[in-house]
Amino acid sequence: MDARTILLVDDVQFFLNQEKTFFDRNEFNLLLARSGRAALEITRREKPDLIFMDLFMPGMDGDVCCYEIKQDPELQHIPVIMVTSGGNETDFERCWQAGCDDIVVKPINKTYFTAITRRFLQLSFRRVPRFSARIRIQFQGGSASGKVLTDYSVNLSTGGVFIETVNILPVDTILQVEFMLPLYDKPICCNSRVAWVNHPEMRQHQNLPVGMGLQFINLSWDDMQAIRQFIQKEGLAPYW
């Protein structure tokens, strides 16, 4: 299969460099743009398979560029993923109004960034191995955003966690998750996305209890390392 073409757009070179490291150059052809106007020109000329577009840029903001792309009959089929800083609802609304296909929040989590790429390009990818771990998890968000719920994990990895719970939430719900690891002196806190659910009336995996698989979105480097060290020190057994 020919390499897929991905356009990365950001006026800050640091973020372009970071995003570039997420891709195998043998698998993807990467195009770079430092402004919305440049991104629009490249999109019209190259017609990439996928675009990651920063929201705030000089000259032409990313949402304006996205809108122009989505208004062009020859380009509107190209998925545009907007990249924003923080979780400002006004910024999210700007992105959705522009017609974007999804939103990624900075600081960028490699696992989520890679997963969203594979999803929009409909590529298969190797699942991050998970390890059996019974940890108390607190989470809130979705329809019960003001209520903190507590349940326990079944397995854990640097990419996410499966929670045994009857508090099933819709896929793509964004949650705030917090949990403690033994011998780690501060709680691990991050946003997570409900990636899939094991519903009591439609179990996808019979070897798992009713619950939700969460994908970490903005897990910090230090917290990721803490999870790795926890798995290694405890000698946890692979779950799959």
Task: Describe the protein's architecture and organization.
The chain has 240 residues and is α/β, with parallel strands linked by helices. It folds into 2 domains: 4-121, Rossmann fold, CATH 3.40.50.2300; 131-234, predicted glycosyltransferase like domains (Thrombin, subunit H, Beta Barrel). The protein has 6 helices and 12 strands. The strands form 2 sheets. Strands 7-8-9-12-11-10 form a 6-stranded antiparallel beta barrel. Strands 2-1-3-4-5 form a 5-stranded parallel beta sheet, with helices on both faces. Strand 1 (4-9), helix 1 (13-20) and strand 2 form a beta-alpha-beta unit. The protein is elongated, with a radius of gyration of 19 Å.
**Quick one: how many beta strands?**
12
What's the order of the H and E elements? EHEHEHEHEHEEEEEEEH
What characteristic shape results from the CA principal axes? elongated
**Biggest β-sheet, characterized?**
6 strands, antiparallel, barrel
Low-confidence stretches: none
